[in-house]
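User: Some background: our group keeps a shared notebook of sequences we're curious about, and every so often someone picks one and asks for a predicted structure to add to the entry. Today it's my turn. The entry only has the sequence so far, pasted here. Could you supply the structure so I can complete it?
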Amino acid sequence: MRTVLALAALSLSALPATALSADESSSITSPVAKTQVEPHGTYWLRNREGWFWYRDPPVSVKPPKASPPPPSRPPELVEFEAMQQRLDELKRVAVMNPTDTNLVAYMRYQRFVMNKSEVFAERWQRLVWTVPELDYGLAGRPTNSMAIGAFDEQQQVRQGQVVRNLASTHGLLFIFRSDCPYCHRFAPILKRFEQAFGMTVFSVSLDGRGLPEYPNPQMDNGIASRLNATVVPALYLTAPSKRQIRPVGFGVMALTELLERIAALAQDPPEAPL
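Assistant: Of course. Here's the predicted structure to add to the notebook entry:
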């Protein structure tokens, strides 16, 4: 800055004295004189107010929001967790150091916990007695022995109707061997099922000989290996018009079991044809 002022003074001194009037001389020298009397650094601070600079608007700093306090936990939950922790600690101590004192301490505290569980189960049962929609025995299969018989009878009536409707489009494929004792035991059951629900049974013998209930079976033409029937008796549900075969079961099955399985298969979506 001083260098700039010195050059300006030299240039002015080189001009003739008559070239400038008093007003012109004052107009030239006054800024220099004004600048020289300003304190050091004031110009540079004031220069920021020019059009080359801008001022950011004041930013109001908001205090951070206080996080809400954590919800208070029920005292029962705190007590339950403490009980679980105490039981686990006593168990670990007894396992690592199975002295009589440690084992007795664990067993006594375990009895304390079991007593609380018994009280819970008893209160649960009493509440179920008064609120029917919470009783599983009323919503599904009952637990009372007298009610079980009535439930099973109604269930079998519904399943029997499903199987009778299925008999018009489906049949059963029975694969057996004449020397199989389980096949001899299962054949009478299957025959009663056929007669009761009108579902046709197609019998196939692996050795070409029949059974008393099915004396004229078809000879195995490879269907057993195709179905992977390695265990006999084997029973399959068939839909000839759709060329579908689904296994019902293997081995000896009771009549009620046959009814339940075939009725369940009737509710399944159809499979792709073989």
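Suggested note for the entry: Confidence is low (pLDDT under 50) at residues 1-35. Residues 90 and 105 are 7 Å apart (CA to CA).
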